[in-house]
TrEMBL record:
It catalyses: a 2'-deoxycytidine in DNA + S-adenosyl-L-methionine = a 5-methyl-2'-deoxycytidine in DNA + S-adenosyl-L-homocysteine + H(+). The active site is at C44. One of its GO terms (biological process) is DNA restriction-modification system. GO terms for molecular function: DNA (cytosine-5-)-methyltransferase activity. Its EC number is 2.1.1.37. This is Cytosine-specific methyltransferase. NCBIfam families: dcm (TIGR00675). It comes from Bremerella volcania. InterPro entries: C5-Methyltransferase (IPR050390), C5_DNA_meth_AS (IPR018117), C5_MeTfrase (IPR001525), SAM-dependent_MTases_sf (IPR029063). Keywords: Methyltransferase, Restriction system, S-adenosyl-L-methionine, Transferase.
Length: 288
């Protein structure tokens, strides 16, 4: 999918554990220490609130591969993203381990929960963002401030492609009619039924789940129309451009959006870090 959308960008396709620092530098055309920002999102399913948080999930250890590359590449700054569940319950142990490892790699580090909806994304989606600055650069990392305006789901999906939208079966169609805006099936049936989420039309969408099968029912539905959301609408809610190409079935394309970090959100974080780097490096180089 990355190659399909970014054909001119160097791409390593393989197990991250097998990617050497030397190969990463070769692909980027940079030398050690020249990279401005190293961005990565270690797999987060083991931390997710939506699933069962598993402290011993093998995927939780993949952040160590990120740290390995961080120490080898020695970028001026890094950004590391994970889900909000990482700072809850037993997962706090892994959060603390992450901070320790990142700081021990030679960086000043700060972590903060940010809501994508405050950064122009039409989706209420919280993400834990680690930002680090190489210690020798002499300044502290910071996170961007919220940047409006807040965009509602209806503003976002207006005019989006609605082709290939799965229909709701009769049972879910009736359920749809009874669920008010801002509620889900548990409002009608009882606690434990989290499907048929009907977004409030004048607010950002709830967090898009990674699962949306399109088989007669839907985890999240259209605010006004008795149907699931289309892939085109999901792309808008995830802040992907309309021409971004996705592959696979409806449920597979949906999962790619549901598992993603909204690009508009990450662009604002990366721009903030880049601007800070530029400002402080310029100050260091300025004549006295």
């Amino acid at each position: 999918m990355y190659r399909l959308n970014f054909p001119n960008t160097p791409l390593y396709h393989g197990d991250i554990a097998n990617l050497t620092v030397e190969e990463a530098l070769r692909l980027s055309g940079l030398a050690e220490g020249e990279l401005d920002i190293f961005d990565g999102s270690p797999p987060c399913q083991g931390f997710s609130i939506a699933g069962k948080r598993q402290f011993h999930d093998a995927r939780n250890q993949l952040f160590k591969e990120y740290v390995r590359l961080l120490r080898g590449l020695k970028p001026k700054a890094f950004i590391m993203e994970n889900v909000a569940g990482m700072v809850k319950g037993k997962m706090k142990k892994i959060f603390a381990e992450c901070l320790t490892e990142l700081k021990a790699s030679g960086y000043r580090v700060k972590a903060k929960l940010l809501d994508c909806s405050y950064f122009g994304v039409p989706q209420m989606r919280k993400r834990l963002i680690f930002i680090g600055i190489r210690r020798e650069l002499g300044f502290e990392p910071s996170h961007p401030l919220p940047k409006g305006p807040v965009v509602s789901i209806m503003e976002a999906i207006d005019g989006a492609d609605t082709s290939g939208v799965p229909e709701l079966n009769d049972r879910y169609g009736l359920l749809y009619d009874q669920v008010p805006h801002g509620k889900s099936a548990d409002y009608v049936i009882g606690t434990g039924y989290s499907s048929c989420v009907k977004p409030h039309p004048h607010k950002p969408s709830p967090t898009l789940p990674k699962t949306q099968t399109g088989r007669g029912f839907a985890t999240i539905v259209h605010p006004y129309e008795r149907r699931a959301l289309s892939i085109g609408e999901a792309k808008r809610i995830g802040s992907f451009p309309d021409d971004f190409q996705l592959t696979g079935s409806y449920s597979e394309q949906w999962a790619r959006i549901g598992n993603s970090v909204p690009p508009l959100f990450m662009r604002q974080i990366a721009s903030h870090v880049a601007n800070n780097l530029s400002q402080h490096v310029s100050e260091r180089l300025a004549p006295n």
